[in-house]
Amino acid sequence: xxxxxxxxxxxxxxxxxxxxxxxxxxxxxxxxxxxxxxxxxxxxxxxxxxxxxxxxxxxxxxxxxxxxxxxxxxxxxxxxxxxxxxxxxxxxxxxxxxxxxxxxxxxxxxxxxxxxxxxxxxxxxxxxxxxxxxxxxxxxxxxxxxxxxxxxxxxxxxxxxxxxxxxxxxxxxxxxxxxxxxxxxxxxxxxxxxxxxxxxxxxxxxxxxxxxxxxxxxxxxxxxxxxxxxxxxxxxxxxxxxxxxxxxxxxxxxxxxxxxxxxxxxxxxxxxxxxxxxxxxxxxxxxxxxxxxxxxxxxxxxxxxxxxxx
Length: 310
Prior knowledge:
Blueprint: E1 5-8, E2 12-19, E3 33-39, H1 41-51, E4 56-63, H2 66-78, E5 80-87, E6 92-100, E7 106-113, H3 120-125, H4 127-131, E8 135-138, H5 144-156, E9 160-163, E10 181-182, H6 186-193, H7 200-212, E11 217-221, E12 227-230, E13 235-238, H8 252-265, H9 270-284, H10 297-309
Parallel strand pairs: 1-4, 1-8, 2-6, 4-5, 8-9, 9-10, 10-11
Antiparallel strand pairs: 2-3, 6-7, 11-12, 12-13
């Protein structure tokens, strides 16, 4: 019997710097804060899904170093089952994150380290884990060839597939038909379809373009505007779910993907799962950091209950 969520992706140690703006080339400015914590899109999504109530397996590579130890401790605390290869010749990845301390906006540079060497052999080694999941998730921080192989395995086994095409890197067109759900933000969606998305009509037009490429459902995340759920027969803008003042948007997309995938695995309908993902993201942006900001199931359910009662 299929159960839970499996995720292929990378872990990096997030080094986050708070300041009023980014420095210019050759300039040094004084920051207002600093933190080090667990990150990486796939890893963040795994933590989010586990805290949101799902069984989760995370497939990746780590270095045998301090940051790798941080990753394994994170998974133990969150209840994520690691399917990890540890390497002696490559370090665990790291990310530079600038966060504007006034509005929470961010800019990021990622070095994937050991996880950048994830290959189809890692995916094949995790085949049973993927095939036995209800939902499989991947992104583009690891090589696209590994993502495609994993999506093919999941698709052939009848596992629901969720593809987060982030960062906005080139990938084979053959990936699109393997996607039950593709989850780009508006910038990534614009890169995929070749036109900007300033209006809701443009967003829906982008959804149509993604369906024409072979995906079953497009979920285009739009920040505070919510998420467009778009299929051939149904298109609805699911509003964002606010939880409090926004202080850090860094992990919002990962919170949405993790919460959405956990909800799907638990049997919620797709639109209910989108609302659940929006609530997960709505809580995460009220906290600093990425993985540490992911809310627990009872917090998400309480926020949704408050919204339903309002």
